[in-house]
Design a protein that fits this description.
The chain is α+β, with helices and mostly antiparallel strands. A 5-stranded antiparallel beta sheet has the order 3-12-11-9-4. A 3-stranded antiparallel beta sheet has the order 5-8-10, with no helix packed on it. A two-stranded antiparallel ribbon has the order 1-2. Helix 1 packs parallel to helix 12, helix 2 packs antiparallel against helix 3 and helix 4 runs antiparallel to helix 12. The longest helix is centred in the middle third of the chain and has 42 residues. The chain is elongated and about 105 Å long.
Length: 354
């Protein structure tokens, strides 16, 4: 395992820092400030129109919540013991074991993403955010084109009126005939332009009006081009984790070059593992632009080459952890640590660890 950079700590040290905080909470559980404020709000009421705070009821609520918290910490302790025994049976020494909520705060602060990858290498992502933006942009373009169509119709109407007025009131001179010919062809051109814009804007399919593939292609392509990979992931995994349901995509991860890591993963086979990785250390075989258009998977070659370059540098490699009932056991981590010591100490000082 490489040493952490300046101001950063390895996961093993994180386990020690958070572990001391866990021992503190097990000995003397403290409710988080947010929970205390919520209980205080529940104790407030109005009697005869006057605001009151029932401190006796508030004390009962606090006692009940504290007992529940103690039970949760007791369950955490038993789960941790069970996980350590299972890992020991498999010949795996966990790098750190810590509460799920504390772990989520840490990896999100480090800019990492958690993925629950299936046996087939698939994860679910959420396309709704990108689809919503694309739909709004497509609607805007449709409205603009519709407005242009209406302008063409109005111009054609004015032109037709001018032709009628000229044919009745203006003498039939060669100049007039030339103007009439220009007006006629202008009217025909306006009508054809209107028809062309209407065909571009919409087309009929299965007796339903749908957006033209041309507009759909232009909008989705522009949207995907305007977003960086990290920016796109904020829509695909808005909570910095893969979705339990959604659109399945195939994850591409760097190859394992460390034999000890490979051996650990072999022993951990069968455990419900999660992969936590920096956005630059993983990608999707499917092209998001094609997914938005409902096409078959195709990964752009430029994205593939960029991924290969980043993976070759092995800057911040993926982390593998076992999640079980609010307890996280980190079993694999190699490469530079992405965790800042300041953030770790801040999380350890909080009471909201479970």
């Amino acid at each position: 395992m490489e040493h952490a950079g300046e101001g950063r700590v390895e996961i093993q040290e994180i386990g020690e820092i958070v572990g001391r905080a866990v021992e503190r909470e097990i000995r003397n559980p403290q409710l988080p400030e947010e929970a205390l404020r919520s209980l205080l709000e529940r104790s407030k009421d109005r009697v005869a129109g006057f605001p009151i705070t029932d401190m006796k009821y508030h004390s009962e609520l606090v006692d009940q919540a504290t007992r529940t918290l103690k039970e949760r910490w007791s369950k955490y302790g038993s789960t941790e013991v069970r996980m350590r025994q299972e890992l020991e049976r498999r010949g795996i020494s966990p790098i750190a074991i810590l509460p799920l909520k504390a772990w989520e705060k840490l990896y999100r602060a480090a800019g990492l993403y958690e993925m629950n990858i299936s046996g087939g290498g698939m994860v679910n992502v959420d396309l709704k955010g990108l689809q919503s933006i694309a739909e709004k942009r497509k609607s805007l373009i449709e409205n603009v084109i519709f407005s242009l169509c209406m302008c063409v119709v109005a111009a054609c109407a004015v032109w037709a009126g001018w032709l009628f007025w000229s044919s009745v009131l203006v003498p039939k001179t060669p100049v007039f005939i030339a103007w009439m010919a220009c007006g006629f062809f202008g009217l025909i051109g306006g009508i054809l332009s209107f028809m062309a814009m209407f065909v571009i804007m919409v087309s009929f399919h299965s007796e339903e009006l749908r957006v033209s593939p041309l507009i759909e292609w232009a909008v989705t392509r522009r949207l995907c081009k305007s977003l960086s990979w990290r920016g796109m992931l904020e829509y695909l995994m808005p909570d910095r984790r893969s979705e339990s349901a959604g659109t399945p995509v195939t994850v591409v991860l760097p190859k394992i070059t460390n034999d000890s890591v490979h051996d650990i993963l072999v022993r951990a086979k069968g455990l419900p593992l999660r992969t936590i990785a920096d956005p630059e250390m993983f990608g999707f075989e499917e092209d998001v632009e094609s997914l938005l258009r409902g096409k078959q998977k195709q990964m752009r070659e430029e994205r593939r080459e960029e991924s290969r370059r980043l993976w070759a540098e092995m800057l911040r490699d993926p982390i593998v952890a076992w999640y079980d009932h609010g307890v996280v056991a980190v079993i694999v981590q190699w490469g530079d640590s992405p965790f800042e010591k300041r953030v770790v100490e801040q999380v350890a000082c909080e009471h909201d660890l479970l």
